[in-house]
Amino acid sequence: MLKLGITGGIGSGKSTVCEIFKSLNIPIYSADDRAKALMTEDRELIKAVKALFGEEAYTADGSLNRALIASIVFQDAAKLEALNAAVHPAVFRDFARWSAEQTSPYVIKEAALMFESGSFRDLDYVVTVSAPQQLRIERSMKRDNTSAEAIKARMKKQWSEKQRLEAADFVIQNDGKHQLIPQVLELHQKMLFAAGL
User: Fold this and answer.
1) C-alpha dist (Å) from residue 192 to 4, 124, 139, 195
2) Structural domain boundaries of the chain?
3) pLDDT recorded at residue 152
């Protein structure tokens, strides 16, 4: 089974593209969503998070104290790096297990930090969803109800658009000028062909 990665900068439209693939009955693994879930499900990861942030990293009911962790990692780059170093192996294990359970010709792993985390190495192909920076900022401000400055700060923690475009096997343009569905259908046919169908 082929593994296709979908990535892109904040506000690029990764989730929208994945919804189109989902309508084609292609299973989608959201690395970001699963990472959040694994922080309260995966025993090894919970142990690592407590070692990094103390017992107060979790509330009495076992849920993650997101506010505490966010306040620490956004001021301490070393803690953020250590957290990512703990989360990425858990996501890798979870994706491998999930992929083995799927029966489709290919699966999709959606991740914002696919190149930054190195998880692209375990995939057959990677697609970058591309959109102009100003459009990405506007989309993210509307979706997250936050400021342009906050979005730009998050963008600085991601690879540049140029880096993603150079590293990707395929590019889907989500700039408002190119229609998404025909691009996804073309890529879907390429994946089916690559899978031998």
Assistant:
1) 11, 13, 31, 5
2) 1-27+106-192, 32-101
3) 86
pLDDT at 193: 95
- CA 8 to chain centroid, in Å, comes to 8
| Whole-number pLDDT of residue 150 | 82
Please calculate the CA angle 151-156-161 and round it to the nearest 5 degrees.
95
pLDDT < 50 stretches in the chain: none
CATH 3.40.50.300 applies to domain 1-27+106-192: yes
pTM: 0.88
pLDDT the model gives residue 87 = 94
